[in-house]
Every structure is written in C-alpha cells, then in structure tokens.
Amino acid sequence: MSQLTASIVRIACNQSSRDAVINKLSGTALSLWKSAALSVQCAVFKADPSKSANFIDDISNVVSAEIIGREESASGTVKLNQVVVAAAMNGALTFDQWSADTAQHFSFHFSNDDMNFALAANKSLYLAIALQLGDGSEVPIATGNAAFKDPGIGDAGDPEAPDYTSYSKLESDARFIQRDYVPLVFFGDAVANQVFDFFKAKVGIAIYGVELSAQIAPVGSNLTLCLVDGANAEIAGTTATLTAGNKDQETIFGAPIALAAAGIVRAKIKTIGSGTAGGYLNAKLITAPA
C-alpha cells in the first residue's frame, strides 16, 4: 500500500554543475507550494548523476550540510535556512538505493509554518545547498531558482482572541516591522570567546535583535553571544541569550544598532553551557533598512 506524505523533492547534487536544480521525481525544475510541509532529499555526486561512477560513496569528511532559500537571488532576503549535522546523515547510501528513491545522503524537513511566507509578485525562491568539510572548506553542491506557488487552499479558522499585551515603541517596531534576517552560522560545539561568520552591509541598516537557535541545546548554564565589529570589538548592548535546555530564543536589544553601508558585524560566543556547551548555532540578525 502507498500513502501520501508531505511534498518531497529529490535533488542529485552535482558538484560540477551550474545548471538549474532538477527534481529527480518529476524530471523538471523545482516548483514548491506555499504553506505546505516539504522534505528536500539529497545525494551528492561529483559529476553527471546518471552515472554510478560519479556517486560520492564516502561522506565521512562532511561535517554538515546547509540549505538557504532566498527571495529571487543569492543576495535576496533569507526565507528558509536549515543545517543538518553529520550524525543525521546516511553514510551507507548506495547509488542503487538513490536510484530506486528509497534513501538519500541527507534530508531537510520544513513544516507548514516554515513554508508559510510570502515572496514579492512574480518572484521565485533561490535555493543554495552547501557542504561544510572537516578541513573547514565550504563546498556549494546545488544552486537554482524554484517556482513558489500559493495553492489557495485551507481555512483561516476563527479569529484569534485579542492579545492585550503591552509593548514599548521599540518592542513594537522590532515585532512588526518588515523584518529581514541575516544568518550568522557556527558549526560544531560552541567554544567560549570564539568569533564566527560575518555580514557586510550593502546599505545602512538597523539591527533590532537576534533570533538564536542551536541544534544542540546548552545544558547546565546559559549560552550567550554578542555582536562584534570588523575589528572584533564587542558592540555594547548586543548580548543574546539561549537559556539552558532551549534550542530557540529571541533577544530584542534595548536599542537598535546602526550599521552603516560597508560596515561589518560578526558574532562572538561569550559563555557556553557548563554541562553541554551547545552547538551548531544560527544567530539570525533581525534587521531593517535604517
């Protein structure tokens, strides 16, 4: 018997190709539904994925895989972002299993809520998949645009009960502005005082806070980080906290941080969990035009 599941796309990630990404199940360019749960299943090839000789059968040097979905282009606003660590990958995958659609090297899974975002009219979703290797190098293995369609189904349901929580002007601005998210990503177990990743502003922006998530939650004590400038000097008032035992937490700064065009900002881990450090961090900067 065969049952329906969430939407699935299977991508043969061809390291040597710069062509559009194709869904193996349909043989066509990617087309995704808005607000519909999605599983992106991937296998890695060094060249033409129709030939078994090009199949990568040893991924033991892969630390993690990341997928980022942006509006329209590689410089667009981030709409999707997920990292899969080596422990969640299938290093025993064979070419025959992949060809038979029974298994894959790794998968990214997005819920209905994850996929419930809007793109500007006539815009597509630009997807990029990359591998982080043990030697620190990052290897792009698939990039391309996917059509993003609203199926126009579902029921809005009863109106929500009014929320009479009071917010300051700053908190209100941070909650209801049209947000852009800039991900700063750290691979591996968190290390105190480690500075990682960077973002260089194309135009002047304001940074309102950080949405901090981890694949491995800190245990025993809180994990904290702050932002630093291009000279790695800490920026006052930018400490973000991930409470022990949590994997996701938002911090809104006491005042927005101005970052001028061409300004650089990075993240610095200040404290780690005393039992389990926490790891594989994604510090999403909450930004808006200045």
Q: Judging from the principal axes of the Cα atoms, what is the shape?
A: globular
The mean pLDDT is 87
The number of distinct structural domains comes to: 2
- CATH class bucket of the largest domain: Mainly Beta
Task: Give me the number of helical elements.
Answer: 2
**Strand order, biggest sheet?**
4-10-9-6-7
End-to-end separation = 56 Å
Assign a percent range to the helix content: under 10%
The residue ranges in which pLDDT falls below 50 over 5 or more consecutive positions are 154-158, 174-178
Secondary structure class reads: mainly beta
Listing every helix as H and every strand as E from the N terminus to the C terminus, the arrangement reads EEEEEEEHEEEHEEEEEEEE
Q: Please indicate the percent range of residues in DSSP E strands (runs of 2 or more).
A: over 45%
Major sheet attributes? 5 strands, mixed
Tell me the Rg in angstroms: 20 Å
Number of strands: 18
Describe the protein's architecture and organization.
The protein has 2 domains: 7-149, Immunoglobulin-like (Sandwich); 173-289, Jelly Rolls (Sandwich). The longest helix is centred in the middle third of the chain and has 8 residues, at 169-176. The chain is mainly beta. It starts with 6 loop residues before the first strand and ends with a strand. The chain has 2 helices and 18 strands. Strand 2 (22-23) and strand 3 (28-29) form a beta hairpin.
